[in-house]
Design goal:
Rossmann fold
Length: about 375
């Protein structure tokens, strides 16, 4: 979401009478790739870009193709195939051993429903969003068209595709929580390839505490593009935290914090009584992740004083908090906690990739 917000901000800062833009989007990946489906890159006619679609390998070529899309005012799709790691095949050496499909779409600022405007609506949501995009079509006017699915029951009117089929594909994509490619044939025998994209909302981080280690954690969270909420003692927080946080509340106001499926709560008040008071509140709110700073014996003591909860059996509760990386400084501890949050939200163990069998990313 951080990349999407940066693209929107840079788009808004442009003088569209003087400069045109195109959006390069990763729409399909096979085998290895640095970026995944949904990675985007906004390219200006001047050659300046925001975002990225690879680790830097494709951006030069993507710049030229984006400028061509701007000049021709026509979308195009390019397949970068490095399965054999042959740089002569596409003119760039990726070293990824993968196949990456990229769609280049000119953006019309006069169109109130262009893809940037759709992404603006996505960025404002607290829940996952669904987008449908035509990524391959014999009809050049249809290629690159995107549709924001604002109501699953009232899907887009894509000519020649049965609404029942669209609803089923969208429903399955939402249930699986990952993008899906659909190849279909219209009533007029036109072959289409559609990307149904599942876009997660910004991660919401609720930090409970007011000591100096909150600064380190908020710094990492801000770099990750997370939405930060802080509960503690406002008068003891550094001034910088007020600019980083969307919301700063006192301990007594903890009930006011809203959580959703992508919320992480971390209790790091260094105050046993406040942690014991606030932990049940957030257990009842049931965020995807709850972490509590401190040794295991502290958690066992709290368990004895909170008999209504079986803390060790709560799947979303982590104490001691963070991955085991031997963290010592506040910054390292913040890194360990943030890493565990990412691993939890991705359904991964947090173990070293050298021990992972198969591909790094799920297909």
């Amino acid at each position: 979401m951080k990349e999407i917000r940066k693209i929107i901000a840079d788009y808004d800062a442009l003088d569209h009478d003087k400069e045109k833009v195109a959006l390069a989007s990763v729409v399909n990946v096979e085998e290895s790739s640095y970026r995944r489906v949904g990675a985007r890159m906004l390219v200006r006619s001047s050659g300046i870009w925001t975002g990225g679609i690879s680790g830097g390998c494709l951006e030069g070529d993507a710049l030229k193709r984006s400028q061509m899309a701007i000049f021709k005012n026509t979308a195009s799709r390019v397949v970068y195939d490095t399965m054999d790691d042959d740089q002569n095949q596409i003119g760039v050496g990726l070293g990824c051993n993968g196949r990456i499909e990229v769609l280049f779409t000119p953006i019309d600022p006069a169109d109130a429903n262009n893809e940037i405007e759709q992404l603006r609506k996505v960025a404002a949501q607290d829940s996952p969003s669904m987008m449908l995009k035509v990524i391959d079509s014999e009809n050049v006017d249809l290629l690159g068209k995107s549709y924001l699915i604002e109501n699953d029951a009232e899907v887009v009117d894509l000519q020649g595709i049965r609404q029942d089929d669209l609803q089923q594909w969208i429903s399955e994509t939402r249930a699986n929580r990952k993008p899906r490619i659909v190849e279909c044939t219209t009533d007029s025998d036109e072959e289409l390839k559609l990307l149904i994209e599942f876009i997660k909302p910004e991660t919401r981080l609720v930090i409970i505490g007011y000591n100096y280690d909150v600064n380190a954690f908020a710094g990492i969270a801000q770099e990750l593009g997370w939405e930060i909420h802080i509960i503690g003692r406002a008068k003891k927080l550094s001034k910088s935290l007020f600019s980083q946080a969307k919301q700063v509340l006192e301990f007594e106001q903890a009930e006011q914090v809203e959580v959703h499926d992508y919320t992480a709560v971390v209790l790091m008040s260094h105050d046993y009584n406040w942690d014991k008071t606030l932990l049940p509140i957030f257990i009842e709110k049931n965020p995807a992740y709850i972490g509590m700073l401190g040794p295991k014996k502290r958690m066992h003591k709290m368990q004895g004083e909170l008999p209504d909860y079986d803390l060790e059996s709560l799947v979303n509760f982590h104490s001691p908090v963070g991955l085991d990386i031997g963290a010592e400084s506040p910054e390292e501890i913040a890194l360990a906690i943030a890493s565990e949050i990412v691993a939890t939200f991705r359904g991964r163990s947090g173990a070293s990739l050298k021990f992972r069998e198969g591909t790094i990313h799920e297909r």
